[in-house]
Structures are given as structure tokens and as C-alpha cells.
Design goal:
2 copies of one chain form a homodimer.
Chain A: H1 4-22, H2 35-38, H3 42-53, E1 65-69, E2 84-87, H4 89-105, H5 108-124, H6 126-137, H7 141-148, H8 150-167, E3 173-179, E4 185-196, E5 199-203, H9 209-222, E6 227-230, H10 237-252, E7 260-262, H11 272-276, E8 281-287, H12 290-299, E9 304-308, E10 314-317, H13 323-335, E11 347-351, E12 355-357, E13 360-362, H14 364-380, H15 382-389, H16 395-405, E14 410-413, E15 432-437, H17 441-444, E16 452-458, H18 461-475, E17 480-483, H19 487-499, E18 504-506, H20 539-543, E19 546-554
Parallel strand pairs in A: 5-6, 5-8, 6-7, 8-9, 10-11, 10-17, 11-16, 15-16, 17-18
Antiparallel strand pairs in A: 1-2, 3-4, 4-19, 12-13, 14-15
């Protein structure tokens, strides 16, 4: 069985499947916001489309709408003025389950074709999406385009590739024959049916609504589930546009649009707890805070739950060749999007005795000073600084910065605002850099989300490694960066940190950063420590979203004489 | 990397992997208890080995032993008199975690080789195992040999095959190159490490300790986890022997024996709740009652939980060619092991208007009578009857039979004991067959484990289908058997029952029975209704037992002139 959309996207699918196995660099959707690629008018068209969304209701013709909800405020200092359908879950969820029946009955080719077509249309609207992501999350434009657009689309395609492989792993039908006596053979015709797990809920986050939302959305959708998308109230628009496009493609190809629906809510009337524990819900994908994610894991026990939570990420600085290249890389990592990535490093562990470099030994304070200097240089150009930092998504992050600065740690660099010419009212802060002793675990051995960096003086690299692994085991960690010119130190650090379930990056300088994770090659969140129980993407991320249920029909076999033994096995 | 045990068992592994994909008939371990296959002295040796276990402590030199526990009573009317190490979990679990480190660090080849070697040795001791399974579970000898021996070993091998495929799906290392500017290429050497999820616990059941225990045991073990085996207090010996063999093989090949340990307990001092919720535990495999299984799902939220629970299985009798062949097949299904299989049919739905057969129309009472007659014939030969029925594992099943007989339903056949010559004190009952109306849902719409059969008069086959699907959705179901000569009825039944997540068997006569499930072809428990959340075996059953955690190291790249562009992707 095939499907026109499957045929249209078959090459992309096959290349994606190959990429998940090869795990070298590969991407389906161009990351450069270039007119040559996306069309000369794409940028202007996208900006206009985004502007046209503002100050009006976002219409979605889904069942159970009982009002309008939504009050997104841009971190860039404007309000969006958009409202979205407010859903009666007691109507929406049964409707989603009903819509799921036809979708579940479709062949995998049809579902995979529709899913890639949805991504393809989202890709064509990457400039509109960039506006929506930028103005709700506070990301700079380039990051909003890349991470909110093509990189998120790649992550969605990666999930579809895994779903395709899993769904086609079992034959659709087979003849089973067993010799049951000297003269008799039993023969069964077996058919294997894919049955989706149930209505899936995607709980989005406020910082990377599409990048973190697409893997679960497309993994569930491709495997035959209906999906209810529950955006963070601070960043609804990117996922609302996604839902709109998905419904459009579904409807065009003969499926019920309610296979994908939106369940928006407001900060002061959250619906997530009710939604994820409803009996119709068989799958939950969650991205967000550790505290709430753990609540979901412990309470949505009727569903299979995939979480991407938070953690305390570390840099271990042991020894380097080129200190300037290293501090430049670190400065970008801690500044990018004001440290609001779940992969951003929080703690930089350096021996109190300092660091060997190719230019000789540097003291702890020399190295800490070099990091501060590198951040100051990077953000010294106001236009570049504003683009790198973006804006602070959540008001509470500002309070956290003030709290951290006032707890007695030595302030090496203040979180001074950087002027944003384009958006003078933007909520901007630059990295607060603090110096602490390893004994001050009350300060650095906790998650302090945002542009807050602790440079921790340890008794040596062995203790740096130990503290990194301890934080990962107890609090979770998504990344770890290690700098050493000694292969033995690298190996020891790698062993300890990998055992704690943390992906390790070694000696990064130049244009690759520890907080970046590339689809088809890097696994995002290991699932092996408290930072989450799932990974983007592996087989485990899709395999439980559907079940294989078989039918077997006995078919007649001519009785055979004993001498004509047909061995059908042992 | 390879390993001598991997080389020894490579052909078996490769054939097993191929079988999981082809899903025709295949088996690695011969199911016939034949001297030609297992050795002429194997039966006598195995019986002697079993006898030698009785009336003494079962020694396992594992840490944290604080006493002896165990009081297995055979359903055949004897006591075993064996005690097992009683474990202090606060010592045993940390020891298991410690032992896991070396095991986790081994290459997949070494682990898979060791696992298949363990199965191979268990296979050679299938007669000893048959004695242990028979005398603790109450199965007849042939079933104890097959289901407790080779069939269980096949299920274990199936899990290992899936584990091998998942572990080798990602390359161990790869070079990643991306063009990051007109002149620069970033190059990372990436390595992918397999990290086990944590200490695994296997909670065994009293009826099929090895068949239901081996998939989880070997899936966890192959993927690098330490495994603590927690047998049902009514059937400890088969899993204790398994643990003994596993420890022997591990130790011989340089691994710590504590990678596999035993945590036995007593009926009056159960430890399962404490065990499965301990922080060291990352995986739980559970087989047993629905009530306790649901407790595990809801409370062991620190772990990934795989459950095989119970359900209400149905036969839908619409129309048949050969009524005698059909009732003969049904009689065997409901009699085998006194209906103590989680796959045994409980409810037989027949239209009140009767059934068309090749010999003309038969009334409801004719058909019900034919089923009773077939059971009476099958069990009429006392020796055959005793072998088929085995004995009743749990005293409470006897009470349940009495309860069912006394609730006002018309008794078509009493659960009269069948004499067991070899074991005169055996706890034996034959199927109680009751006639009820579809309106008496309080009687048949509940799980009544044991030799209890309700023949339900429905308003027609459509209602039979509806009631079957309803029971599956609400109470779970592991099997469904449908008899019809009308392809349209078969299709309607199949659609409805598959949607409720129940594997369907159609028109079984002869030597294949609905309660049998063949490794490498049939998925046991769908995971798609309340009868359990996992399947023996699919990728989902193994993929979450370990994680891939990566390291990436930046390596130097010569800067290139713009004209020498190296495209490493888009």
C-alpha cells in the first residue's frame, strides 16, 4: 500500500532513516534564513503573516470551544493581543478519540506521508514561525528562525523516521506452520495490526515550544494517535500555527481535522493536571520544570509519559591549549538566549590551583577573569549582544538573578542589561557571574535557571568531576563540557559523567557549543538521570506509542503421510 | 569486539533475530522431552537433581543474607521443605548496583554471549526444571517441561534477540562534520555509550515462574542491568535454580555473580512493595494479579514498569463447520492446567438462537451440551485427565470455584475432582461450566481465575462481539477466540476486538489452542488494554532498559579555502 504523500516524501523519509542510523551530520530543512532558499519574498511574507495574527482571535474550528483564552506578553515588551479557543476537555477529548479511529485505521504510509507533508508546509512558513517563536520566547531572530524552524522540523522528522522503522519492523502478515505430530501440520495465517496507545497530549514549554514539542507530536501522530497540543500559556502562538497547518493537511487528505487539536490555557487557570490524567489520555509528552514533570510522571500513571525536565549542567576546566578560544566558546554558551536553554552550563568547575595552558600556568582568578572578559567582549557590541541574549522569557527569572546576586557570593560580573535598539522595552539581562568555593553547595548545587553562572573553586579536577556527577545524579543534567589536554583526565571525566547519564562534550572551541544538540546525531536528554526519562529521539521514544495486536486464522492443511515429513522447524 | 561466548552462540542469535522479524514458526530449544534430544539419562538425572533439592536449604552465596525463608507447598499434596536466603534489601540492592558496574562496562557481545550461555545451560537441565515447575505450579509433567523449559527459554532468547538489535542500532562511534562558514568545517568524533537504566527487579508469578519471568530477566540482563529476582512465595524453586545457573556462568566468565540475585519472601511477610519502590530500582517486570500490578504501575514511578496482568478472555461462537472439532478444541482449552493460564477463555458467548453447523442448526442448549460432553470425554480417561488438568496452585481458587457454583447460575457441569493416581493428595478440580444470560453481567463480567467457564446466551453474535470488547476495555483480555463460517462476521469481530487490544484467533480446531502463544511469532499480552502494559516481546519491551549517552570530542580541521568547499550536508 502506498499513498501520494508517501510517494512525494519517500526520499526524505529514507534519507532520514539512514541518518538516524549513521548519525553523522544531516539535515532536511535548510537552517539559513536565506531568500535564495526560502524565496526572495519569504522574509517579508512571513513577517506580514505574523503581524496579521496579532490583536485578534486565532480561529480553530474544533469541538468543545466554550470561550477564548490567551494573554501572551512578549519578552520584547509588547503584547500580542491574540486569543485562542478555550476547550471543554470533556468534549474535546472524546472528539479526539473519535477522530483517531479513521487515522488509526490508515496505513502507516498514509500517516507518515501526511506527517512529512505537515512538516514541509511548516518549513515553508519558517519566517512566520520565527516571528511567533521570537516574540513569545524572547529568542533572538536567528535562533528563533533556526531552533524554532528548521531545527525543530528536523527533530520532528527524526521522530517520524523512528516511527516508520518501528511500524514496519513486523510483517503485516505471515503464514505460520508447525508440525504437530508425525502426520499433521498446523497452519495459521497471521496478520499484525498496529493499534495506537490512546489520545496523546503534548505539553509545551515557554522557551522552545516547537523544538521540544515536535518530537512527541510527530511520534504520536505517525503511530496513529490523535494529539492534543497544550502549549505553555506564555508561548501559544507557535504551536497554534502548527495545529492549524496540521488540521489543514489532515482535512485535505480525507482525515478528520480533530486528529490534532489545541488546548490552550491561562497562567491563572491551568488545565495541564486535569488534561494529562484524563482516562482518554494514553501518552503524555512533557517539557518543562523538573518539579511539574515529576508530578506528571507520578500522577499520569494511566499513560506512558515522556519527560524532558531540567538539570544542573557543568563545565570542567582542567587544562587547555588556547585559553582565549576556550573562554570565547564558554562566553557564547552562557550568553546565548540569556542562558535560558535547558542545556546551558551553570557551574564552571576550576581547580583553586588554576589551569595549565599552552602559554603557561594561569591562576584560578586569571581564568575566571578571562571568562568574564570574554563575555564582556562578546556582548560589547550592543547589536550583537542584543541578538545573542534575546530577552528574558519569564519575569521570575529576573527575580532569580537578583536573588543569586544577593546571597553573598562574590560577584565577578553583574547581570547588567544590554540595550536593545529595536525593542527598547525588552526584558534583557546579561550573564551574572559569581565566584564560589566548592563548600558552598547550597548556592551552586541547585538549578538556577537563566543567565546565572557559578565559577566554583575546587580542590582539583577529581573533585570537579565528582561534583559534576553528583549534581547529575541528584538534580539531573543534560550536558557537560570538559576541557583538558590530558587524555587520561578526559577519559576519567567521561567515564564518571557518562555513568551519571550525561552527554559529554570535550574541548569545544570555535563554532560548536555544548548547549547545541543536532538532530539525527545528538541524543537530547539521556533519560538516564533526573533531567528526564526520555530522549530525542531513539526507538524507545516511539516504540510504546502503539501496539501490535495480531489475528491468526487456522487454514486447512492436507494431512500428510508419515514418510513425507515436512519439517517446519525443530 | 567479540567474546568467546558470543562466537559460540552467534548462529543461534542470528537465527533468533531473523525469527523475530519473519515471525513464522521457529524455536531454538526442542520441546519434546526426548532422550534422543536431551540424552538418554537426562530424565533420570533431572528427576534425581530435583529430588536432591528437597528438604534442605538452597544455598546462594549472595550478600545481605539475614536468615532463611521459604515454605512452598506442592499443589500435588507434598511439601518441598526448601528454604532460601532471606535478603536484607538495604544490603542486597547496593551490592547489585555495585556489581552492575563491570557488567554495564562490558561490550554487548560479552553480555549477549553470557545470556545465551545461561539459557543453554538451563536448557540442558530442562528435566530438573520440569520437576521444579510441576511440583510448585501444579502443571502436568508435559506442560511443566515445555512451558517451564524450552518454551520459556525461547521467550528468554527472544528478549535477548530484541536487546541485541536495539543495542547495535546506533554505531559505537562516528565522525560528524558540518560546514559552519564559507571557510570552516567543524569536526567532532562522537562515541555512543550504552548506560543501563538501573537495578532491575523481576516479580515472578506462581503459575508460570520461568515462562513469564525470563523475558524481563534476559532483556534487563542483556542490556547491562543487574537483576534481582523476586519469585512468588508459592513457586520459588524454578527461579532459584535459574539464579544459581546465571551466577555460575557470570562468575566463570569474570563477572560478579551479584549481577543476578534472589530476593525470596514468604506469604506472610511479603517484600515486593518495598523492593519495587527502592531508589536503586530502575526497572520492574511484574507478572501477577491485576490489582497488585496496577499498584506497581502507580507506585513504582521511579522505575520503568512492565506488567503482565490478568483479564477476562472470551470465545465467540457464531457458526461452525464441524461442531465436534470445535468443542474438542474448546474442551482442551478450558481444561488445560485447570484453566489457570492467563490466556484461558472464561466466557463463551453463543446466541440464544443457537449456531449453524454443517450438519444443520443447533440450539443454544445443544451447543452448550456439546461443550460439556467434549470436556467429559477429554477428562474421562483418568490418566489423561490428570495430566491435562494438573493441580490447583492456590487454595483460593478452590474457594472461587465453590463461590461461582453457588451464585445461582445454572450448573451445566460440576467441577468434580479427577483422581490422580500418582499423587492421591493432589488438589484437582475439573472445569465448572455455568449457563448464564447476557443480562447477568455481575457474574461473568469479572475475572474468575481457575476452571470456571460461563456459557453466555446473547441476543446474537453482534452482542457477543460487543460484550467481548467491553470486557477487554474495562477488565483487560489476553485472548479471544472466534468461530464463524461467515467471513463478514469474522471481519467485524476482528475489527472490534483488535481495537480493544485483544489478539484474536479464528476457527481453531485441532492442535492449536487459543491459550497458547508461540515465541518469535505471537505477541503475548498486547499492552493495549488493562491486562498489562507490555508485550512479550517487541522493541518497546527492551528499548527503555538502557540509554545511549554520547561523548563528542572536537578534533582539528585544516582551514580550507572558500573554493574548496566540502559539503557535509545541506
Amino acid at each position: 500500500m502506498s499513498h501520494p504523500l508517501f510517494d512525494r516524501h519517500r526520499e526524505t523519509l529514507e534519507a532520514a532513516v539512514a541518518a538516524t542510523r549513521a548519525r553523522g551530520y544531516w539535515s532536511a530543512y535548510p537552517e539559513m534564513p536565506s531568500g535564495r532558499i526560502y524565496g526572495e519574498s519569504a522574509k517579508a511574507d512571513g513577517q506580514a503573516a505574523f503581524q496579521a495574527r496579532l490583536e485578534k482571535p486565532f480561529e480553530i474550528d474544533q469541538p468543545g470551544t466554550v470561550g477564548q483564552v490567551g494573554a501572551e506578553e512578549s519578552p520584547y515588551g509588547t503584547t500580542l493581543g491574540i486569543t485562542y479557543p478555550q476547550a471543554d476537555l470533556a468534549v474535546l477529548l472524546p472528539a479526539a478519540r473519535q477522530a483517531m479511529r479513521g487515522w488509526a485505521a490508515a496505513e502507516p504510509e498514509a500517516r507518515v506521508g501526511v506527517c512529512i507533508e505537515i512538516l514541509d508546509r511548516i518549513n515553508k512558513r519558517s519566517f512566520e514561525m520565527a516571528g511567533a517563536v521570537m516574540m513569545t520566547t524572547g529568542q533572538g531572530f536567528m535562533m528563533a528562525f533556526q531552533a524554532g524552524g528548521p531545527h525543530a522540523q528536523d527533530r520532528g522528522l527524526e521522530a517520524i523516521a523512528y516511527a516508520w522503522e518501528e511500524m514496519t519492523r513486523v510483517p503485516r502478515q505471515v503464514t505460520w506452520e508447525k508440525k504437530v505430530s508425525k502426520t499433521d501440520v498446523a497452519r495459521l495465517e497471521k496478520r499484525f495490526h498496529l493499534v495506537p496507545r490512546g489520545v496523546a497530549v503534548v505539553v509545551g514549554c515557554s522557551t522552545f515550544p516547537t523544538w521540544n514539542g515536535y518530537p512527541g507530536l510527530f511520534a504520536s501522530l505517525a503511530t496513529g494517535n490523535a494529539v492534543v497540543v497544550k502549549p505553555h500559556p506564555g508561548s501559544i502562538l507557535p504551536l497554534a500555527i502548527t495545529v492549524e497547518i496540521a488540521r489543514e493537511v489532515l482535512r485535505e487528505h480525507g482525515f478528520e481535522a480533530d486528529v490534532v487539536t489545541l488546548a490552550a490555557d491561562a497562567h491563572d487557570a491551568p488545565i495541564t493536571k486535569e488534561l494529562v490524567t484524563r482516562p482518554e489520555v494514553g501518552i503524555v509528552d512533557y517539557t518543562g520544570s523538573s518539579e511539574f514533570g515529576t508530578w506528571v510522571e507520578q500522577n499520569a500513571t494511566q499513560a506512558v509519559v515522556f519527560t524532558e525536565k531540567a538539570g544542573v549542567n557543568a563545565i570542567i576546566l582542567d587544562s587547555v591549549d588556547d585559553l582565549k578560544a576556550v573562554t570565547g566558546n564558554i562566553a557564547f554558551t552562557v550568553s546565548l538566549y540569556s542562558g535560558q536553554m535547558c542545556t546551558t552550563s551553570q557551574n564552571i568547575f576550576i581547580s583553586k590551583d588554576g589551569v595549565d595552558t599552552a602559554e603557561g600556568h594561569k591562576s584560578f582568578d586569571d581564568v575566571a577573569g578571562a571568562i568574564v572578559k570574554a563575555v564582556n567582549w562578546l556582548l560589547g557590541d550592543a547589536r550583537r549582544g542584543a541578538e545573542i541574549l534575546g530577552a528574558i522569557q519569564n519575569e521570575r527569572t529576573l527575580q532569580r538573578i537578583d536573588q543569586a546576586a544577593g546571597e553573598g557570593a562574590e560577584v565577578l560580573r553583574e547581570a547588567s542589561p544590554v540595550e536593545n535598539e529595536q525593542f527598547p522595552d525588552a526584558r534583557v539581562r546579561s550573564p551574572l557571574i559569581l565566584k564560589v568555593d566548592h563548600s558552598q553547595q547550597n548556592l551552586y548545587m541547585r538549578e538556577m535557571f537563566g543567565p546565572i553562572v557559578y565559577i566554583v573553586a575546587t580542590q582539583g579536577t577529581d573533585q570537579s568531576i565528582e561534583l559534576t556527577a553528583k549534581a547529575a545524579r541528584e538534580l539531573g543534567a543534560l550536558t557537560c563540557s570538559v576541557y583538558s589536554t590530558d587524555p587520561d583526565v578526559l577519559r576519567r571525566a567521561e567515564d564518571a559523567v557518562i555513568e551519571a547519564g550525561v552527554p559529554v562534550s570535550c574541548n569545544l572551541t570555535g563554532q560548536v557549543f555544548v548547549n547545541q544538540s543536532a538532530a539525527f546525531s545528538d541524543f537530547h536528554v539521556s533519560g538516564a538521570n533526573p533531567s528526564g526519562n526520555a530522549t530525542f529521539c531513539d526507538a524507545a521514544f516511539v516504540a510504546t506509542r502503539f501496539r501490535v495486536v495480531q489475528s491468526r486464522v487456522q487454514v486447512p492443511v492436507e494431512a500428510q503421510a508419515p514418510e513425507a515429513e515436512t519439517h517446519a522447524g525443530v
